[in-house]
Amino acid sequence: MKTAKTKSGYWEEFWQLTRRHLLVFFRNKVRIFFTLMVPFIIFVIYILFLRDLELGMANNILEKLGKEYDVSLTSDATLISHINTIVDSWMMSGIIAICTITVSFQACTTIVNDREHGVNRDFVSSPISHNLLIGSYFLFNIIVTVLVCFVFILCCLIYLACLGEFMITFVDFLTIFATLLFSSVSSVLLTVFISSFISRDATMASVNTIFSTAVGFLIGAYMPLAMMPDWAQNICAFFPGTYSCSMLRYAFLSTPSKELISYIGTLGLPFADELVAQVTSSFGFGIKFFGTDVATNYQSLAQFVFIAVLIAANVVSGKKLISVIGSMGKRIKKKK
Question: What is the full DSSP assignment across 134-174?
Answer without folding.
Answer: HHHHHHHHHHHHHHHHHHHHHHHHHHHHHTT-----HHHHH
